[in-house]
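testing teh design pipeline on a random one, pls ignore if ur not involved
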């Protein structure tokens, strides 16, 4: 029995509406599987690893060239003695009429602030720049089989403004920012040599990836008896605030 044109059109409309409903409305699946995920700031221990949140501050750009590094790159500056790190924090910026100034802070691996430098002071020379081991572009978080990847993204709130047909011209504006589609929760897995750490962060998915940044730095074995890493999270949207610097080490 052949379908009439009206029936074909009706089936097509039903399929289209179902597809839109699936995409636009929040997901209810996988809730049980991911319900044990916590924010990284809530995790103290995972397998053989201890997790310490050293600071909840937003991280500022680290001017590696000014500190003697040959390459300007994403890095954390390990103090020459190896028992603390130096960083610039946006949260500690003092507003000036023409520009913002951030001061250098030194913190140990317990999260204690050791020293705060004035505007024109620099950390001591002879330290080590720890390079980011992830170096993952936004679009690669879902596909990466490396250290850190998004294993699932739960959609919560749809950004209806992206359906505005007049907004297509925004991409020609130099101030244009990538559109975001959903506010939701990204469930992540950090793969380490002796186990994985599962955690979540509230974020949004953009045209290219997600609205969060993560970097991972390995502390040289010369300064730590066991595996030790520093993980930084930035631009997350979690209400409880999971951004900052984390010290992860094996017992």
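output:
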């Amino acid at each position: 029995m052949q379908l009439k044109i009206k029936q074909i059109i009706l089936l097509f409309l039903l399929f289209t509406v179902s597809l839109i409903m699936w995409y636009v409305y929040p997901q209810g699946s996988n809730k049980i599987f991911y319900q044990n995920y916590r924010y990284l700031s809530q995790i103290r221990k995972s397998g053989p690893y201890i997790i310490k949140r050293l600071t909840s501050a937003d991280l500022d750009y680290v001017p590696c060239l000014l500190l003697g590094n040959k390459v300007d790159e994403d890095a954390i500056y390990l103090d020459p003695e190896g028992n603390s790190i130096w960083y610039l924090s946006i949260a500690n910026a003092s507003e000036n009429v023409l520009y913002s100034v951030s001061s250098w802070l030194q913190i140990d691996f317990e999260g204690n602030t050791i020293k705060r430098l004035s505007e024109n002071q620099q950390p001591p020379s002879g330290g080590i720049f720890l390079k980011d081991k992830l170096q993952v572009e936004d679009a690669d978080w879902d596909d990466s089989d490396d250290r850190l990847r998004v294993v699932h993204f739960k959609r919560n709130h749809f950004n209806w403004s992206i359906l505005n047909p007049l907004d297509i011209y925004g991409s020609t504006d130099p101030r244009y920012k990538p559109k975001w589609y959903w506010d939701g929760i990204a469930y992540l897995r950090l793969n380490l040599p002796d186990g994985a750490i599962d955690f979540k962060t509230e974020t949004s998915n953009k045209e290219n990836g997600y609205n969060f940044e993560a970097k991972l730095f390995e502390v040289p074995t010369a300064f730590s008896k066991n595996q030790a890493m520093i993980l930084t999270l930035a631009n997350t949207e979690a209400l409880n605030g999971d951004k900052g610097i984390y010290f992860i080490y094996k017992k």
